[in-house]
Write a structure and sequence with these properties.
heterodimer, A: mainly beta, B: mainly beta, four-stranded antiparallel β-sheet
């Protein structure tokens, strides 16, 4: 079946540091790939997505590229802010638009 | 436009009690989902409804039942709660059954079973 593996946290950074969160997946066919973010006390919201190989999703300074050859969808941001402190989830869709999530990576940005 | 709403926000149950978690969306979406979130495990799909009048099991359906009451509402019922069902429950909706669709999540219900 489908699965998503992402690096465990927590990841602690200083403000303006570079952030990378690794995500790799196993899936049949050609899934769509997503990054969702969960701010403290809230539900998940879409951060970015890519629907086919070599697509780059971007939003709020975050980027991720759909790499089919390495089955990866790593999330990057060049300069993080305190407000980026959250839990980040990598996910993919299989049959029937059912999402399969990674375990989540908690990011803490210190001023 | 409230998006996806869930009630209650918090609930404490004793083992063996029953309860229903309510979810409603006002985006005219066809598909709705129930997930549970446990530490280190991400979110796991309990049940989903691809369209009004249909429901299907997800990854972890045991101990739960669902009802798609109409296009807007999708409820999750625990008939006899167990401590293993202590979790945070999220409802989500999406426009349809396409793999490219974004899912929109509610704020969650934090359930504790003693």
């Amino acid at each position: 079946g489908n699965s998503v593996t992402q690096m465990e946290g927590p990841v602690t950074l200083s403000e303006e540091a570079f952030l990378t969160i690794n995500c790799t997946y196993t899936a049949t066919g050609y899934p769509s790939l997503f990054w969702y973010v969960q701010y403290p006390g809230e539900g998940l919201q879409l951060l970015l997505k890519a629907t086919k190989a070599d697509d780059k999703g971007s939003n709020k300074g975050f980027e991720a590229t759909y790499r089919k050859e390495t089955t990866s969808f790593h999330l990057e941001k060049g300069s993080v802010q305190v407000s980026d402190s959250a839990v980040y989830f990598c996910a993919l869709t299989g049959a029937g638009n059912k999402l399969t999530f990674g375990g989540g990576t908690r990011v803490l940005v210190k001023p | 436009n409230a998006g996806v709403t869930q009630t209650p926000k918090f609930q404490v149950l004793k083992t063996g009690q029953s309860m229903t978690l309510q979810c409603a969306q006002d985006m005219n979406h066809n598909s709705m989902y129930w997930y549970r979130q446990d530490p280190g495990m991400g979110l796991r799909l309990i049940y989903y409804s691809a369209s009004e009048g249909t429901t299907d099991k997800g990854e972890v359906p045991n101990g739960y039942n669902v009802s798609r009451l109409n296009k807007r509402e999708f409820s999750l019922r625990l008939e006899s709660a167990a401590p293993s069902q202590t979790s945070v429950y999220f409802c989500a909706s999406s426009p349809g059954g396409q793999g490219t669709d974004t899912q929109y999540f509610g704020p969650g219900t934090r359930l504790t079973v003693l």
